[in-house]
Please model this.
Amino acid sequence: MNWIAARIKWIMLVSGVLTCTMFYAAIAPEAAVLSMFGAGIEGTVAELIARNWGVLIGLVGVMLIYGAYHPPSRPLALTVAAASKLCFAGLVLSHGQQFLGQQAGISIAVDLVMAVTFMAYLAGGARRSGAHT
Model:
């Protein structure tokens, strides 16, 4: 636990930069969805939703980067990021192994490591008594 707390700034920075890579879906939604899930998107609405998905995930990355430099915002940024990553993993896994052979499988593994790390940091918050690194 102390290891995470001592390195939370760098953990948040690396996690934030990795999460920001999903802005790519806002720029090239077809390519991003094909890379992530191995399937294309069809129609204007699907493209619009994929772009919005990329922006929202990218903004979570921006929150993590901001929280790395602004300790009072860390609990909110880490909570939102962990919830987002757990929801994504749960939604993909709810379809069985269909997408696990694609980039989504790697993303789920990385997202779950991040979410568990964030939750461990948050769970130790009461013991840190407000100490921010």
